[in-house]
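chain below, 66 aa
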Amino acid sequence: MRLKIDEKADALYLRLDDSKVMESEEVSTGVVLDFNEQNQVVGVEILQLSKRTPKLNVHELQFYTA
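prediction:
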């Protein structure tokens, strides 16, 4: 799993695996899901990140596993 934050584009991209993206669908304004050929979600893109999470400091992200 990889997380990429593009400050210039104001976007976050979460890639779940390395499958080839066959289709993308905007499921909500500025939220795009990428699907592989088995129709599984392999990526999530969130646009206008700073407007959605105004207090987010991208330099201090924390990750947890349960």
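The mean pLDDT is 92. Residues 49-52 form the longest helix (4 residues).
thats it, cya
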